[in-house]
């Protein structure tokens, strides 16, 4: 949601990519430094995995920026994240509860 808002309000796609990366990496760094300083706990495995996601986030933000245009390319750029969310959440509705 935060990356989508940044993408919506930014003027250029390169600004979106940079802003989203710095926001996400800053949040990640602040969380794990806080965890280390306060609790003495630093899970390197999780930090590296979330860091990889933070590195990939500018690509997604760059694509989302183009979804506010007009035409089929803008509709396709808007459909990519929506389709991903649907494919991840749809199996919940079709799951059999035992």
Descriptive notes:
This protein has 98 residues and is mainly alpha-helical. 81% of the residues lie in helices and 0% in strands. It has one domain (2-93). Helix 1 (2-9) packs antiparallel against helix 2, helix 1 (2-9) packs parallel to helix 3 (44-65) and helix 2 (13-39) runs antiparallel to helix 3. The two termini are 34 Å apart. The model has no long low-confidence stretch (mean pLDDT 86).
Give the gist of this structure:
The protein has 98 residues and is mainly α. The protein has one domain (2-93). The protein has helices spanning 2-9, 13-39, 44-65, 72-93.
Tell me roughly what share of residues is in helical segments: over 70%
Shape: flat
* Tally of DSSP β-strands: 0
Strand content: under 5%
Salient structural properties:
single chain, 98 residues, mainly alpha, 81% helix, 0% strand, flat
